[in-house]
């Protein structure tokens, strides 16, 4: 059996390559949308107290001053974003989040942590849309570059990363309205926005001429070929034991 395993494994290599290609294709169908908030308590005169950096599939697309409601930059997606009805609503929600975080910041007590200079809260809201349309949302909260607290929007679970956030976790966890707010923004609002981004990118990249073979037909052929290799790999050692 050991002698027959090596040739059989070599014949299975095309199967492994096909499967790895499928895996990469599935990962390519997953899209992510991130918003990084920076909230400064008692900022210096003339300094922004609320700034948002937006990323789609880990590429910067938005810089927004949520304190003064000014878009600083939009990047190469400007035309596509301005064409969507959700663009204005998106800025409204981001500003609302910034204001809510600013209200929570003064009453937030941190243990075993003494910041240098004005307290700077950093929050990352993210949502991911998988190939099947499922949305996963989450939040990360930190201070001065250190992660303190995590929130899983799908199951409403809080997790302490830094010991100094234990009191912060207890306070925010008991605030049901705040928990629902974070969940709604990351799953509801962010989830609806992320569905728009891939749609607009795909439209801008559509070929002028239709392909000769549909994607569904190509996938069916690939699956059929893979199943044939599976069967061959399984039965070959028994049919040719002397190889």
TrEMBL record:
User: Pfam families, per this entry?
Assistant: MHC_I
Q: Which residues form the signal peptide?
A: 1-28
List the subcellular locations: Membrane
Which segments constitute the MHC class I-like antigen recognition-like domain? 30-197
Q: Which Gene3D superfamilies match?
A: MHC class I-like antigen recognition-like (3.30.500.10)
Q: Biological process GO terms, please?
A: antigen processing and presentation of endogenous peptide antigen via MHC class I via ER pathway, TAP-independent; antigen processing and presentation of endogenous peptide antigen via MHC class Ib; immune response; positive regulation of T cell mediated cytotoxicity
Q: Which domain of life is it from?
A: Eukaryota
Name one cellular component (GO) term: external side of plasma membrane
Q: Keywords in UniProt for this one?
A: Disulfide bond, Glycoprotein, Membrane, Signal
List the InterPro entries hit by this protein, alphabetically: MHC_class-I_related, MHC_I-like_Ag-recog, MHC_I-like_Ag-recog_sf, MHC_I/II-like_Ag-recog
What is this protein for, i.e. what is its function?
Binds and activates the KLRK1/NKG2D receptor, mediating natural killer cell cytotoxicity.
Family, according to the entry, reads as follows:
Belongs to the MHC class I family.
Q: What is this protein called?
A: MHC class I-like antigen recognition-like domain-containing protein
Q: Which organism is it from?
A: Aotus nancymaae (Ma's night monkey)
């Amino acid at each position: 059996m050991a002698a027959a395993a090596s040739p059989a494994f070599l014949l299975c290599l095309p199967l492994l390559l096909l499967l790895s290609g499928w895996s990469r294709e599935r990962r390519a169908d997953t899209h992510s949308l991130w918003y990084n908030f920076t909230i400064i308590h008692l900022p210096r005169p003339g300094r922004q107290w609320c700034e948002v950096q937006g990323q789609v599939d880990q590429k910067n697309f938005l810089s927004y001053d949520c304190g003064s409601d000014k878009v600083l930059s939009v990047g190469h997606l400007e035309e596509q974003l301005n064409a969507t009805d959700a663009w204005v609503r998106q800025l409204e929600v981001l500003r609302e989040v910034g204001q809510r975080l600013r209200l929570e910041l003064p009453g937030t007590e941190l243990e075993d942590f003494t910041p240098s200079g004005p307290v700077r809260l950093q929050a990352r809201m993210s949502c991911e849309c998988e190939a099947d349309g499922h949305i996963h949302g989450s939040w990360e909260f930190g201070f001065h570059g250190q992660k303190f607290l995590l929130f899983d929007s799908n199951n409403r679970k809080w997790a302490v990363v830094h010991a100094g956030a234990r009191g912060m976790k207890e306070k925010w966890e008991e605030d049901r309205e705040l928990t629902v707010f974070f969940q709604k923004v990351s799953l509801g609002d962010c989830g609806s926005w992320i569905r728009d981004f891939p749609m607009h990118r795909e439209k801008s990249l559509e070929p002028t001429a239709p392909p000769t073979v549909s994607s569904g037909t190509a996938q069916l052929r690939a699956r059929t070929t893979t199943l044939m290799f599976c069967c061959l790999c399984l039965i070959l050692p028994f049919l040719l034991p002397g190889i």
